[in-house]
Design brief:
It is built from 4 helices and 2 strands, in the order H-H-E-H-E-H. The protein is of the alpha+beta class and 116 residues long. It has a domain of 60 residues.
Length: 116
C-alpha cells in the first residue's frame, strides 16, 4: 500500500508557533544545530560529564571556534536544578543566556512528569 502524503502550505501570515506546532513531532534539537551557528559559548548540560564531553569532543572537531562548557544538571530534583543555576551564574564565561533548550524526558524517551 502506498504511503499517503499530506501537503500543508503556510502563507506569509503564518507565525512561527503555528509552523512549530504542526511540525512538533518531527523537530529534534541537537546541540550541533547551535554549534554550527558559531555562538561565542555553548553550554551543554547533563548528569554524566563523560557523556557530555564525548559530544563536546565531536563538535569541537567540527566547530573549533566555539567555546564549550559542561554544566552538571540533574533535573530529578529541585536541589539539582538550583545547584546548576548557581554554578552557571557564577561562571564569568557565561555573562548571559541567549537560548535555553530543555529536553525533559527520561532516558527511554518518556516525558518526565511534573517533578519540579
Amino acid at each position: 500500500m502506498a504511503a499517503s502524503i499530506k501537503v500543508v502550505t503556510f502563507d506569509a501570515k503564518a507565525d512561527a508557533l503555528a509552523v512549530a506546532a504542526y511540525f512538533a513531532p518531527q523537530i529534534k534539537v541537537h546541540p550541533e544545530a547551535f554549534a554550527s551557528q558559531s555562538p561565542n559559548v555553548l553550554v551543554l548540560t547533563g548528569r554524566t560529564e563523560s557523556k557530555v564531553q564525548e559530544c563536546i569532543s565531536k563538535m569541537s572537531a567540527r566547530y573549533p571556534v566555539v567555546k564549550y562548557i559542561y554544566l552538571q544538571l540533574d533535573l530529578s530534583s529541585l536541589a539539582g536544578a538550583r545547584s546548576a543555576a548557581k554554578s552557571l551564574m557564577a561562571n564569568a564565561e557565561v555573562p548571559y543566556i541567549d537560548i535555553l533548550v530543555n529536553n525533559a524526558e527520561l532516558g527511554d524517551g518518556q516525558i518526565l512528569p511534573g517533578r519540579i
